[in-house]
Every structure is written in C-alpha cells, then in structure tokens.
Queue: 3 jobs
Job 1
Amino acid sequence: MTHPPVPPRSLSHPKRQRKKIQSSAEETSVEPSLLEMTRLRAAQICHSQPGMNTHVKALIAQGESSKRVQQLEVWRGNPLYSDREKAALAISEAIASGLPKTICAKIVHKARTHLTNPEIIHLTLAILAVIDWNYSLTKEHH
C-alpha cells in the first residue's frame, strides 16, 4: 500500500498557512463543486474520515446530488461525471496517491484539454491542502 506523499515542512505550518493555501485555491475559475470533488477524492485516498465528512457536507450544501457524491470513488468511465471533472479527479488521485512524477506529468498534460494551467495550479493547491490537513491530523494522533 502506498501512502500519500509527506508534504514539505513549509506546508505543515499552523492553520493560518493552510487557510492561505485554501483561499488561494478558491480564487479561480474552477467551479466550487469541482473544487470540493477533488478535495473529497483526495480525502478518500488519504482515508481521512473527518475530511470526507467535511467535503461531503460541502458538496451537498452546494446542491450536488447524493448519487454523484456516493459514486465519486468509481468516477472513471462513469457517465455521471464530465470530461472536465474526470480530468480534475485524475489529478487529485495522482497527487494524493503519490504517483511518480512522470505519471503525474502525463496526467496533467492530458488534463490540459479540459483545464487551464491556472485551474490546474489551483486544484493542485487545494489537493495539497487536504493532504497536509490529513497529515497534520494523523501526526497529532501518533
């Protein structure tokens, strides 16, 4: 079993650092529901129950259907998700799973047909914030 990458020390600072990353990620043209979906997928991969609860609630509050939220783990080939959503979810999985850099680069390159570079950067920041939050929670409990 592979573990998500350990965030650099610069990301593992107090809550205000995480809030800066989150707010930066939210200043984008990425739809709020897509941003939350990528966060939820990262939380699922990190096995973060508090994170999953938070992002499920946010998605439901944004009007996302419970069917799409429940089927997020099986998004590949699922007609419930658009190509744009699938591109973002692929990036989320690649980063949160800790895939090798070359594979991540190929996934990002492919995603550029559906997402702009600034959107990819903002999604990446949001995903890293979820990983960092999960890492800090597990660090506190060990």
Job 2
Amino acid sequence: MIEAPSPASTNGDSTRTEMIRFLVQCSFAERIDAIGLRSFRNNMMEIINTTPMGNSKQNWFSGVKSNLCQFETKFQNLKEATSVLELVLWKNSIVETMSDDGRESRKRKFDEPDSRSQCRVSCGADVIFRNVLPYLVPVSGN
C-alpha cells in the first residue's frame, strides 16, 4: 500500500514532496489500516498522494489529518449503524420465534443461550447487509 519515493527524480522539490508524502503515509499507516472499508482507505491514500501541497506544507498536513479524522468518524458511524441494524433483526427474529411457539414455552425457550444464538444466526442480517450497506457508504468518500 505504501510506496517509497522513486530515487530517479531529478527535481529537488519533487523529491522533497514525494518524501513528505511517503513519511505522512508511514506515520498514518496504522490509522489508515484500521479503517475497515477499502474504499475509505483508498480515498485517504489518494488524498495523501494527489492533493497539491502548495506553499504551506503545514496546511496540507492539517488537511490530511482532518480528512483522516472524517474517514475514521464515518467508519465508526457505519459500524454503529450496522450493529444497531443487526440487533433489530435479531430482536425481530426472537419475537417471531416466540409468537410461533406460543405463550407457555416463551420463558423456558429463551432462557437457553442456544435459542438466542440460533435466532441471531437465522435473522438474515448477512443478506440485509449486502443490500443495505451500498446505500450507507458514501460515494467517493463524500
């Protein structure tokens, strides 16, 4: 993922710029890798590699840090949203199972961890996520 600057560059400013970009990639590598969506990681690397530095490298660096924080926040929010969605689906599966079994066995059946686990497995979250996540993930890192 991280590429070292090419030593064949003849322009001193270009070499310095490539070196700065490389050092920023290395210093943020752990945080970028912790972002669980490939599209977010790729967008972050693109920002580091293609955003012009201009005269103020400190402003550029602040912008990169700001973008990284935004991607981390978006990813955290997405994780929370998917967790809540999974809990809702799981709860719905439990309620449906309880209503199918009748009132007498309700307490006995759901005191057993295996019953809850089975409802979680069969709640359909994997199918829902495949169809819902594309709408939750922003396009082009927006």
Job 3
Amino acid sequence: MENFNLVKYHVQSAIRAALAESNGLKEEAKRLRAQGNLRLMVMSDAELWELSQMLSHPPARTVESVYRELIESIEERRKTASEWMEALTAKPTEFLSRN
C-alpha cells in the first residue's frame, strides 16, 4: 500500500471545497475548508515546506515567502478557531448522481 500524502490530500480537498462553493454548496464548502484548517495545523514543518513548494512561483513568490505566509495563516486560524470549528460537525452533502 502506498503511503498517505497529507499535502496532496490537502490540495485535492481544497479543490473539492472550491468546487462545492462554485456549485452553490456553501455549507459543504465551509465544512471542507474547516477540515483544511485542521490539516494545516497538524502538518509537520516538512509537510508545510512541501506545500510551500507546490504553491510557490519564483521569483515573484518564493518557497520561503509562501512558507512564512502559511505559518502566519496557521496562527490566524488558531486565533479564529471558534468561528469555524462548528462547521466540522455539519453533515456532508449527499451528491446526486448525474444518471
């Protein structure tokens, strides 16, 4: 079995949240983003660095600057946890098949 990659899963989930929001599923997007907040908080420094590498586009946005932005973002999420934690208890949206 292949090892689980938290960073790749985080990116895929962020895309799912954006898709949910663009499809008008605001509560689903809110829940997925809250899960993303938690994932960021539990990532190791190595995982945050890997995510920074994915999100950077040198020379305009270096890996180091993205890493610093992520650290600042995590601190902000910790301060505002009471605002988004409740979304974690929301029931996932049931998607209808297109058949």
